[in-house]
Amino acid sequence: METLALILAGGRGSRLDLLSEKRVKPAVPFAGKYRIIDFSLSNCSNSGIYHIGILTQYLPLSLNEHLGVGKPWDLDRRDTKLSLLQPYKKWYAGTADSVLQNLQYVIRSGAKYVIILSGDHVYKMDYSKMIEQHKQTGAELTIAVQEVPMAETHRFGILRTNADGKIIEFQEKPEKTDSNLASMGIYVFNTDTLVEALQTVKADGLDFGKHIVPHLIGGKAYSYVFEGYWKDVGTYDAYLEANLELTATVDRVPLDMYDRAWRIYTRSEELPAVKLGSKANISQALISNGSIVAGDVIRSVLSPGVIVHPGAVVKNSVILNDCEIMPGAIVENAILDKEVTIGFNARIGHGDDHTPNAEKPDVLSSGINVIAKGVKVPEDTIIERNCRIQSTARFTGSGTTIKSGTTL
Questions:
Q1: How much is the pTM?
Q2: Quick one: three-class SS letters along 234-270?
Q3: How many domains would you assign to the chain?
Q4: Are 96 and 187 spatial neighbours (Cβ–Cβ below 8 Å)?
Q5: 276: helix, strand or coil
Q6: Secondary structure class of 138 (helix, strand, coil)
Q7: CB 383, CB 366: distance < 8 Å
Q8: Which domain covers residue 339, as residue numbers?
Q9: Each residue of 77-91: pLDDT tens digit?
Q10: CATH number where 124 lies
Q11: 103-151 pLDDT tens trace
Q12: Same domain, 162 and 296
């Protein structure tokens, strides 16, 4: 085996708040029928990398059920292997610590190269091109990089390179910098280099960006420039925006999900075809298998099994599996987790009051409402803006108004 892929999929994804309340971030549904981790897995399969270890930790059940033996990604063949690597001694303390705790798995693989991936980014990338450059430059470490807006540099590891692409400086999430070349968190290591670094560097919360990468800068560390679409959907705003971007016209969509030469694979439910009623009005939408639409769906994404009744309106929203929007209800600028019911004539997203969420202003301030899995919103209820409706929410009855910025 030449290359082993390790996908880091154990992060809690706290910025996704209610969506990661009962599942790990890579298992969060995306683009209707997919999960976020499907992109990294599909990239591996399409790149000819079939030996994959997935490092899980936080709430792994949903992710494990989705992955199974890896059949949708062609990972269940006799000469391939998908391994779920969960902590067995202590909780993973950092990204690099998770690999350190599974170092024997890496060594026993016999792989010449190890590619480290995040399970919670949305993108399409041919890893074989990055690995080929890694070989040609004689690198010990290659980091995938992309230019980001200067205002966003504090969120990333920022690099400087020379004319040959060799990394000459690396700063992890700097407060100030005049470079905008950001690490994508995708690394190709020579296996012996990775093993040596993990065994040598001693630090609490051992992390690739904070500890392992700086340890190797000055040696044979190179950048690989990736110019395609790549997005971290780890906030409500980014998650909603990335989903809704996919509803754009073909010539404007930033991520082509219909490219047969580079398919995104997933574990899909066997559900009937989409059914559209005689009065359905649909504009710029992704509608998944098993859905029934008899109302209006405008610039929205519907996951499998969603029902939109006559007279209901869904606009600028992401509706996850098996939700039901009753007649006369309006859902606007919202994210509904699975199995939510919006009652007759209820209004989700109402008024011009954009008071940030009182409990989590850093999470909800742009006017989005988020409703957790299984919530039943009574008829005639009005939910204004920036509201978090938890799975334990109790409504006082129909006709209630939930003011902007409320957590219920």
A1: 0.93
A2: CCHHHHHHHHHHCCCCCCCCCCCCCCCCCCCCCCCCC
A3: 2
A4: no
A5: strand
A6: coil
A7: no
A8: 275-402
A9: 666 678 889 888 888
A10: 3.90.550.10
A11: 999 999 999 999 999 988 999 999 999 999 999 999 999 999 999 999 8
A12: no
